[in-house]
Specification:
This protein is mainly α and 289 residues long. Helices cover 79% and strands 0% of the residues. Helix 11 packs antiparallel against helix 12. The chain is elongated.
Length: 289
């Protein structure tokens, strides 16, 4: 079977959330580290393609390759566990606590950051020949992204912060849909197709993804980006993380859970209800005759 019905894949979402809450610290960190590293490499790839072709849409179309790889390999992104882990708590799975969910989030954040930072350092070395020359064209493009998406928001003050937060919400609405996409099919082709579409959308629309930014901004700083670590943390990472968390839980996790696993009672018109209640009586009379 290549496609699972919503009730089936939402159950898989809750099961996955429970599994992640109980996962060992070692395994959680390793999986998160590799997820952050692979997504960072995909971000480099997308920026490079955009730089070479002059068409950002081509970079956006190809960026999902990293997302698909990491989920097919069973690695974890912070944006994914923002959706899955709370569902196990909401479903009252035995042993799942608020502390367990927060522990999972914290470990995945740390692992993602370490993986993305590793790639940031390695790519900075590549783009500057071991910091011996000016950054290449791709390196300069990454530095420019870092400046535009920190100082660019800072320039507008509270309005910029609100815009950044909303972009984070919209981002994980799409990214978490991609996470679910990995569960709605039993074939590799089906999984990849379902993941590819929303991830391409988020990247093309330049929404803010906390893990991608864990690569972009440290990398930009290493190559001389004209902004500070404080600018990165305050004017990007923190609001983006909060927006990602809200967007994933509300627009994807809770909506799917509420309407496919914990459905409301069906609305039956009065006439249909009377007809249904009369059916057993007619059946009884028919069998008696």
């Amino acid at each position: 079977m290549s496609y699972l019905a919503p009730t089936e894949f939402v159950t898989k979402m809750v099961d996955a959330g429970e599994s992640k809450v109980f996962m060992s610290t070692r395994d959680t960190l390793i999986r998160a580290y590799m997820a952050g590293a692979l997504l960072a490499l995909a971000a480099v790839f997308a920026v490079m393609v955009t730089q070479q072709t002059g068409y950002p849409i081509i970079g956006a179309m190809l960026f999902p390759v990293g997302f698909c790889m990491l989920y097919l390999l069973g690695f974890d992104l912070l944006t994914g566990v923002f959706v899955l882990s709370p569902l196990a708590l909401i479903d009252r799975r035995k042993g799942v606590t608020v502390g367990g969910v927060l522990r999972n989030w914290g470990l995945v954040f740390a692992g993602n950051f370490a993986g993305a930072l590793t790639v940031a350092v390695m790519m900075a070395v590549v783009f500057t020949f071991g910091f011996s020359t000016e950054p290449s064209a791709v390196g300069k493009a990454i530095s420019g992204i870092g400046e535009a998406r920190t100082l660019g928001y800072k320039e507008y003050g509270a309005a910029g912060m609100l815009t950044l937060f909303v972009r984070g919400v919209l981002c994980n609405w799409m990214v978490s849909t991609g996470v679910v996409g990995a569960m709605i099919s039993n074939t590799v082709g089906g999984k990849v197709t379902a993941m590819w579409m929303p991830i391409m959308l988020f990247f093309a629309m330049t929404f803010e993804h906390s893990v991608v930014n864990m690569f972009l901004f440290p990398s930009a700083l290493l190559m001389g980006g004209n902004f500070s670590i404080t600018d990165y943390i305050v004017w990007n990472e923190i609001p983006t993380v909060l927006g990602n968390m809200l967007g994933g839980i509300t627009f994807t996790g809770l909506t799917l859970y509420a309407t496919h696993l914990k459905t409301a009672p069906k609305h039956v018109p009065a006439a249909r209800e009377r007809e249904l209640s009369a059916e057993p009586l007619r059946a009884s009379a028919s069998s008696a005759s």
